[in-house]
């Protein structure tokens, strides 16, 4: 605690001075495989990354990558963790790539330079042919006194050159930039060609990309532009990726005609073809890694290193051109392009040793993050765009460089010298970019107004820099005409190796072979057994056996599997792995949350999908409205407070407008107060409801409270909600009240805490991560036998019994209910998950969660939801709930669902009494099921004993609606 306060008192400069050496120190511990030392470093770095800044953002991503690298040796646990990129959708990834272009001043600069080089290449070739034609015409006149055959041959040569000039008016450009491609580049080129003195040529553009929707959008934009400029244009889409492309006949694939001028443009993609020849097995690399001298990282860790400074170290010698790259370049040579322009990251991220890659990554991405923060600072509206780029583009690049090896490491950026070697070996020599091409690039870079955006020339190539750090290189290449310069063995080896054999690792014959021998039913039975067994091992603190279970589960389960049980198991395996990791807080908290990987807008989108495809929320809104309508009979002034937060939906209150308008006495004066943490949502809700109220001719007011329910000041509730005397008050809470149960357990958990770094390091170093986990667990049990750790792992603890049969409310819930009771509402309607996910015993909680969410996944599987919609609900909503129930403890475990009978005990202890829900409400709910075709597996059960409604799937209750009011013995006036 003192350590944390000390950090907070330091200035930002001191933070940065501490942070960089700590990152090097942590990388050194990861390289050595020291879990304890790395865990200690993770904790120290975490305290220094609370502030908001480019280096802090980068540090969180690097620490996450270091954590993944450390855990990657534990196959079961690491394989069970869901990759954040699994949350990416094509639409959001497309948006992130577009944001990357807007925030990156170098990408548009590269496109401008490439375009100018292409235009000049076409113009130079045209001028050359014109000179040859004029020269030949003079020769024909001089040859008139020679024999007829000589004259005929000269005329044939002249006609061939004229034909080439005609064909040069057809230019075919191939864009191999894939994910870095952007319509802006070619929209500008159309303008440039249109403005040249000779007019625009007939233009063909082939674009390679793995997103069909992107290609369609790009085609539409460029075709409209060409039509407006009256330029003959044809767009050719090729769906795929560069590293998986069939190189055997590129001319056919790209639809390139013989004789036309060809230009190749490739931005930030060619490095993905360097993934083939590491020339060393993973075992040999590991041996080299252990033999490596760690003096350099340790010296960096002990000194104050500026993130902007250049790190000097020996580059890893580049091997001969990898086969996949050689095959591509050989196939491009066969096209006889007039020009090939390549833009690449200018960094040595393809070094063999992890240590060297880490040093380069820290230096390179510190500069890039600084650049993006500077651009976003100059354009305040782009902060969210910057965060999306950091999370979805740059984090994945960094993680791939630092975590992956072999064929899985495709972000293999290299420096200009290394690319020159590859190109020369493959028959492409460097040609200097023209003065005008570089000038246009410089002018574009200056237009951003950032003083650190620098550039320089190196042997005719164009280098783009942030300060003194090189970030990107642009080089122009031409095919060599002398074929004798190539090495025959390189070409033969390149052409004999198909791309697929290089790109896809061959699986081990024994790995997962047992899975193939099982039928689908056998796999399902095996999967369920493994999940229960794994939970038992986690509960017992047996790391090795739990890890083995996770390894088997991941061979049977997948987020993209066709069966609901397989997808559910993948989510639960991730939660169990995180449960294990939570025992080592440094490693656990260093992992970036998968919840933050999804774009913020996907959460409400997923909720809308759940509302559309499943009946539960519709039933909750309908029965809540019915209860409010009955309670407000005869009232002229009604005030409804909606505490549903993320589960709120304007549809509920539009339906209430309908219901109130149908009353015999007419609608009341209605005021709705909504509590939500999104200002945008509240504004939209206000606009929608005001418009509907006007259409129904209902006197209506909307009051917005921007807050989260669990963060509100309940002592000021009357003031915040604007409760007035003379109004009949109704309260609605949908799927939120359980979040107020997290406080007590959180304080108990905080009191016991985790072992301090000093306590961990004071013990001898463990030989394995499993020993570290088991030792820390045992130590905690010895130090605090009645702590939350015990209660979370013991099914017979007093805490478990208390959680199962609560007699008092937690302070947070008690404060809320006391505040609500003081407002004297006529009715309070609550909807909650009908499940016991708040038990103190982990095993019981797991069993309940597995059965509960299996039913929900089954509902989604049987629904009419599209695959993308179902995936959003399963991953963004239900997946996060499952992680909250299974993996979290203390105040972090907010998904504390309880059954209706448990809520009844809490509500009655807080001075509330039940309000019976009428049978007519149940009938209305059943009619809704019938009208929507949901009757059958879905059921509405009216429980007269608890006066509530239960919404069931195949007889299993999943959600419950109950109604309450202040107890008569404590009730004051019905209006305050």
TrEMBL record:
One Pfam family named in its UniProt record: GRAS
Keywords: Transcription, Transcription regulation
Transmembrane segments: none
PROSITE patterns, A to Z: GRAS (PS50985)
The UniProt record lists the keyword Transcription: yes
Motif (VHIID): 171-175, 638-642
InterPro entries: TF_GRAS (IPR005202)
Superkingdom of the organism of origin: Eukaryota
Motif extent (LXXLL motif): 737-741
Sequence segments annotated as region (SAW): 403-478, 887-965
Segment forming the signal sequence: none
Similarity remark: Belongs to the GRAS family.
Annotated PANTHER family: OSJNBA0084A10.13 PROTEIN-RELATED
Name the UniProt record assigns to this protein: Uncharacterized protein
């Amino acid at each position: 605690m003192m350590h944390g306060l000390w950090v907070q008192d330091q200035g930002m400069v001191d933070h940065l001075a501490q942070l960089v050496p700590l990152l090097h120190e942590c990388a050194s511990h990861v390289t050595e495989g020291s879990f304890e030392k790395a865990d200690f470093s993770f904790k120290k770095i975490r305290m220094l990354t609370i502030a908001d800044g480019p280096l802090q953002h980068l540090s969180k991503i690097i620490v996450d990558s270091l954590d993944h690298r450390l855990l990657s040796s534990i196959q079961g646990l690491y394989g069970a963790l869901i990759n954040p990129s699994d949350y990416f959708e094509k639409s959001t990834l497309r948006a992130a790539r577009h944001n990357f272009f807007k925030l990156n001043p170098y990408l548009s600069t590269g496109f401008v330079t490439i375009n100018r080089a292409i235009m000049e290449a076409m113009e130079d070739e045209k001028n050359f042919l014109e000179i040859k034609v004029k020269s030949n015409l003079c020769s024909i006149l001089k040859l008139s006194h020679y024999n007829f055959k000589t004259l005929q041959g000269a005329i044939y040569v002249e006609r061939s050159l004229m034909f080439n000039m005609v064909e040069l008016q057809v230019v075919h450009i191939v864009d191999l930039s894939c994910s870095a491609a952007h319509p802006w580049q070619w929209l500008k080129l159309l303008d440039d060609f249109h403005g040249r003195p000779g007019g625009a040529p007939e233009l063909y553009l082939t674009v390679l990309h793995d997103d069909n929707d992107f290609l369609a959008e790009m085609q539409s934009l460029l075709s409209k532009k060409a039509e407006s400029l009256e330029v003959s244009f044809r767009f050719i889409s090729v769906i795929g990726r560069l590293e998986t492309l069939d190189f055997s006949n590129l001319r056919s694939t790209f639809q390139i005609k013989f004789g036309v001028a060809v230009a190749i443009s490739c931005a930030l993609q060619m490095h993905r073809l360097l993934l083939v020849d590491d020339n060393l097995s993973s075992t040999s690399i590991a041996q080299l890694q252990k033999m490596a001298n760690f003096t350099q990282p340790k010296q960096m860790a002990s000194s104050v290193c500026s993130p902007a400074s250049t790190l000097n170290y020996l580059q890893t010698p580049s091997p001969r051109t990898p086969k996949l790259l050689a095959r591509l370049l050989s196939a491009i040579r066969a096209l006889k392009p007039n020009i090939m322009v390549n833009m690449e990251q200018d960094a040595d991220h393809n070094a063999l040793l992890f240590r060297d890659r880490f040093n380069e990554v820290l230096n390179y991405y510190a500069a890039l993050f600084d650049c993006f923060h500077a651009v976003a600072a100059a354009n305040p509206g782009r902060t969210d765009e910057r965060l999306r780029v950091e999370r979805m583009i740059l984090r994945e690049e960094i993680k791939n460089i630092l975590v992956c090896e072999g064929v899985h490491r495709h972000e293999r950026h290299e420096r200009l010298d290394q690319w020159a070697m590859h190109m020369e070996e493959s028959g492409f020599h460097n040609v200097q970019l023209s003065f005008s091409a570089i000038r246009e690039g410089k002018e574009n870079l200056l237009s951003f107004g950032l003083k650190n955006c620098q550039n320089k020339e190196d042997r005719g190539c164009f280098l783009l820099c942030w300060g003194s750090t090189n970030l990107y290189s642009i080089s122009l290449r031409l095919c060599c005409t002398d074929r004798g310069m190539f090495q025959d063995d390189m070409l033969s080896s390149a052409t004999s190796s198909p791309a697929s054999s290089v790109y896809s690792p061959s699986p081990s014959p024994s790995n997962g072979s047992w899975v193939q021998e099982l039928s689908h039913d056998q796999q399902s039975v095996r999967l369920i057994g493994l999940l229960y067994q794994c939970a038992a091992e986690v509960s017992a603190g047996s790391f090795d056996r739990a890890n083995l279970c996770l390894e088997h589960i991941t061979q049977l389960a997948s987020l993209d599997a066709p069966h609901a049980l397989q997808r559910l198991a993948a989510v639960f395996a991730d939660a169990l792995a995180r449960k294990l990791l939570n025992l080592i807080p440094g490693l656990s908290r260093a992992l970036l949350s998968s919840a933050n990987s999804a774009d913020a807008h996907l959460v409400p989108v997923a909720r809308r999908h759940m509302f559309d495809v499943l009946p539960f929320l519709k039933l909750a809104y309908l029965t809540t409205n019915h209860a409010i309508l009955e309670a407000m009979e005869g009232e002229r002034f009604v005030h409804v407070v909606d505490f549903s937060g993320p589960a709120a939906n304007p549809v509920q209150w539009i339906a209430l407008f309908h219901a109130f308008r149908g009353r015999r006495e007419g609608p009341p004066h209605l005021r709705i107060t909504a509590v939500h943490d999104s200002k945008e949502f509240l504004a939209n809700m206000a606009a929608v409801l005001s418009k509907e109220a006007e259409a129904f001719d209902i006197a209506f007011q909307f009051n917005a409270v921007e807050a989260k329910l669990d963060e509100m000041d309940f002592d000021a509730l009357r003031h915040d909600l604007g409760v007035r005397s003379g109004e009949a008050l109704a309260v609605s809470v949908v799927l939120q009240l359980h979040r107020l149960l997290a406080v007590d357990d959180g304080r108990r958990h905080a009191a016991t805490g985790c072992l301090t770094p000093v306590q961990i390091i004071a013990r001898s170093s463990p030989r394995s991560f499993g020993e570290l986990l088991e030792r820390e667990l045992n130590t905690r049990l010895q130090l605090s036998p009645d702590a939350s750790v015990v209660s979370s792992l013991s099914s017979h603890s007093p805490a478990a019994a208390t959680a199962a049969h609560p007699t008092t409310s937690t302070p947070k819930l008690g404060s809320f209910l006391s505040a609500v009771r003081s407002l004297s509402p006529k009715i309070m309607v609550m909807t909650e998950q009908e499940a016991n996910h708040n038990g103190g015993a982990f095993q019981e909680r797991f069993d309940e969660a597995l059965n509960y969410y299996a039913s929900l996944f089954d509902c989604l599987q049987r629904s009419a939801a599209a695959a993308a919609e179902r995936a959003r609900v399963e991953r963004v909503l239900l997946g996060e709930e499952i992680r909250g129930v299974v993996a979290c403890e203390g105040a972090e475990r907010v998904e504390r669902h309880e059954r209706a009978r448990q809520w009844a005990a809490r509500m009655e202890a807080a001075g509330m009494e039940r309000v019976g829900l009428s049978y007519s409400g149940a009938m209305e709910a059943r009619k809704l099921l019938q009208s929507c075709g949901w009757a059958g597996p879905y059921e509405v059960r009216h429980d007269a004993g608890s006066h509530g409604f239960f919404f069931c799937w195949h007889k299993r209750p999943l959600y419950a609606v109950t109604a309450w009011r202040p107890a008569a013995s404590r009730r004051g006036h019905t209006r305050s």
